[in-house]
Amino acid sequence: xxxxxxxxxxxxxxxxxxxxxxxxxxxxxxxxxxxxxxxxxxxxxxxxxxxxxxxxxxxxxxxxxxxxxxxxxxxxxxxxxxxxxxxxxxxxxxxxxxxxxxxxxxxxxx
Length: 110
Known about the structure:
Blueprint: E1 15-19, E2 42-45, E3 49-52, E4 65-67, E5 72-76, E6 89-91, E7 99-100
Parallel strand pairs: 1-2, 2-4, 3-5, 4-6, 5-7
């Protein structure tokens, strides 16, 4: 589980590699889990089997690449990327997305 505000204390991380395995043991990402990770430009989180809830990746102000490839994403809820309009790339390649809400990618202007 990646809990809410889990990375709030990491103020100067450039890249965050959480999982590069074919099957990632992380099964839950809570809302605002990455809140406060303001200097990070890359997050690698491949092979997850979870649901992206509303605000899972919200308030990510410096992210250029969010790699969620090779995942089994059960559901991407509306506003999963709320207030993260600066994300340059969300890599969902080779992912098996089961359900995608109509507003899942709202606020991603790049």
